[in-house]
Design a protein that fits this description.
With about 290 residues, the protein is of the alpha+beta class. Helix content is about 25%, strand content about 30%. The longest helix has 19 residues.
Length: about 290
């Protein structure tokens, strides 16, 4: 909601003319809300600034992924300045606390006007956690009198933020690209999945369950040439079933799996040597 707050503007812009034109965008106390959404692949925490856009914190699956913040912008592009100052403001119910300057951000063109990563994003969350309001202030047009301030309200922040933190702790430690092709080796005459493979399989299971863009998972089962062809075919089927059991979470669509048991028919190495037979005892997974 667009509103005027003369007291706040007096604190922020004392160096400017008293006749300046100010635009202040901030959710009223009664309208302020934060929304959490997430799963093991991504965590989102967002806040709508009425008449301006939406601020969102986001982190995706994968090791060393950074926490990102972006401020959506539905108004006209800003061309007058290249940076915005970022301040942490004390709400009106903490009147004795002064404003803190957090730094500057580059003003962007496109869907987001501001973006931060990692430490800067955590700093914004830290200010909100203490009940303060991060504010982005910039000059909208060529005139120094055309000043804009956009604030993230801390009202209604706590509970969704706790959900967001819980979500971060459950993120899968792999990107989908790291899981698209896997070869799992098996012990002789065994169909049990070895422990070293289980973490990646559980991670892939989350993508199969939650990523709507993932269409099909091909699973092929193989054996060495020891034993009869009929036995080996059934053994390769059991190996597929052992893998697919780990990949199938509650709610997973079984149509996403396409499995084929080959038995001993498609070796990747010679069965004359034990080292070659070890390579042939496998399940191969490919994600489309």
């Amino acid at each position: 909601m667009y509103k005027s707050n003369l007291l706040l503007l007096a604190i922020l812009m004392t160096s400017l003319s008293s006749h300046a034109s100010y635009k202040v965008y901030e959710a009223e106390i009664s309208d302020s809300s934060w929304q959490f959404s997430g799963n093991p692949l991504q965590c989102n925490l967002s806040h709508s600034v009425p008449e301006y856009g939406k601020g969102s914190f986001f982190k995706g699956a994968g090791k060393n992924q950074q926490l990102k913040f972006s401020m959506g912008y539905k108004r006209q592009p800003v061309a007058a300045v290249k940076v915005a100052s970022v301040q942490s403001m004390s709400p009106s119910w903490f009147p004795k606390q002064s404003a803190k300057l957090l730094g500057e951000l580059k003003i962007l063109n496109g869907k987001s006007i501001f973006q931060t990563e990692n430490t800067a994003s955590w700093k914004l969350l830290s200010e909100l956690e203490t009940g303060r309001f991060p504010m982005f202030r910039y000059q909208e047009f060529a005139s120094l009198e055309d000043q804009v301030s956009v604030s993230l309200s801390a009202v209604g922040f706590k509970n969704p933020y706790n959900q967001f933190l819980d979500c971060l702790n459950t993120l899968v430690p792999y990107k989908l690209e790291e899981l698209k092709k896997m070869t799992l080796r098996f012990d002789f005459a065994k169909d049990k999945v070895k422990p070293p493979y289980r973490e990646k399989l559980r991670a892939l299971a989350q993508y199969i369950r939650h990523d709507s863009e993932l269409e099909v998972v091909f699973i092929s089962g193989h054996t060495d040439s020891k034993g009869s062809r009929n036995y080996n075919h059934k053994l390769s089927e059991r190996r597929i079933a052992s893998v697919q059991q780990i990949l199938t979470l509650p709610g997973t669509d079984s149509n996403r799996f396409n499995s084929l048991a080959h038995g001993e028919r498609k070796p990747v190495a010679s069965n004359r040597k034990s080292s070659g037979r070890a390579l042939n005892r496998r399940v191969y997974i490919r994600v489309e």
